[in-house]
């Protein structure tokens, strides 16, 4: 088996090693990004929902940048939300700050009962630029 081409954002490798997963894997021209939550540098949840969603996007964008990509390269998005009936409007008013212009990526939204203390998680698949080594 060929070694995985793992992409780590700057300054968060210890967090991923502690939790035993890769933030993103580059494979066959695509970047598969693990779900990103609104965690602080120590991994704890940001308590304010709006700030938590912004942090999740900031964490996602740090991984995309480490791979030489941006949100413009995102093809598919999956979001997970605890209690979406009460939180959707708050979350969705923040999304355009990060989403960019049409055409938009595909989207699947999933309501969940638990996210390890978080209320929002975003997972994406993006195009990975050729010839850009993981940092």
From TrEMBL:
Pfam families: Ribonuc_L-PSP. It comes from the Bacteria. GO terms for molecular function: deaminase activity. SUPFAM superfamilies: YjgF-like (SSF55298). One of its GO terms (cellular component) is cytosol. PANTHER family: 2-IMINOBUTANOATE/2-IMINOPROPANOATE DEAMINASE RIDA, RUTC FAMILY PROTEIN YJGH. This is RidA family protein.
